[in-house]
Amino acid sequence: MKRANAPNFDAAAFRRALGQFATGVTVITTRAPSGALIGITASSFNSVSLSPPLVLWSLATRSASMPVFRSNSHYVVNVLAASQLELCKRFATVKGDRFEGVSHAAGDTGMPVLDGALAWFECHNRSRYDEGDHVIFVGEVERCGVHERASETEPLVFHNGEFHGLKRLG
Asked: What is this structure's pTM?
């Protein structure tokens, strides 16, 4: 099989081009073997399959939470609303207990589901793929839910290095 040609761009150009693709924002949550709650902000979420119900997301290999996510049997993908920007930033930057003062409830597997999330997907950690400087996680969705006011609520969107809401067109 022929290998890919060397890129004709630098990392900054690649990042700029990727930034033009608007993505939703999630917080992926799980529980460490010690019982500590773990959560990270991720915009690399996508659907994979309806049957079986599969989703994917990715995490940098250098992430401090990588060992927990790699070995745990379950995690939850929490889709954030535009009103949850501070929560997004907290799970992206805060060191220490990111869950301090954050309202959540345990899902059926004991993993944290964030209050106010537009939707949530409780996933079995089905498979992991090491690719470049990230690991791609594929989760088999065991349970999911939608916030009762989701149809009236703007999602949190990341585009061109900034956070946005999303207004309906037309």
From this structure: 0.93
